[in-house]
Amino acid sequence: MNAAADSQQRLPTDITVHNQSKVLEIAFSDGAHFRIPFELMRVYSPSAEVKGHGPGQEVLQTGKRHVDIVGLEAVGNYAVQPTFSDGHDTGIFGWDYLYVLGSKQDELWQDYEKRLGEAGVQRDDPMPEPSAKSCGSH
Q1: Could you identify which of 9, 51, 120, 134 might form a hypothetical disulfide with 30, taking C-beta atoms 3.0 to 4.6 angstroms apart as the criterion?
Q2: How many domains does the chain have?
Q3: 87-138 pLDDT, tens digit each
Q4: Helix, strand, coil % (nearest 5) of the chain?
Q5: How is residue 34 annotated by DSSP?
Q6: What Rg do the C-alpha atoms of the chain give, in angstroms?
């Protein structure tokens, strides 16, 4: 099966924002059903602010355990764009990306914990203030 055919079977059939439990519940046409924590979505946002503009430019997100989704807009027929309570609103989450977040949650959490440890920070630490170094000047 090729990726295009695979993606055709992964269209969402239901999306629910659960603010109290802080999860995005999403069901797909292939029968998959996920409950994706807002925090996981926020720390793995596909935005340039989080991913950077190339390898090695990722920005490790901290202090996002209690983030809420305060808005969720459809982007065409291929994605949603959440607005998080910390003001982040530039990540566009395509159906395939949400499927990956849902299906690989355990691996993604482990990777996140590993990166936190390597950086010597805790999950609930506040985000550091941007510095001149992070803007590309040396």
Answers
A1: 9
A2: 1
A3: 999 999 999 999 999 999 999 999 999 999 999 999 999 988 765 444 444 3
A4: 30, 25, 45
A5: E
A6: 16
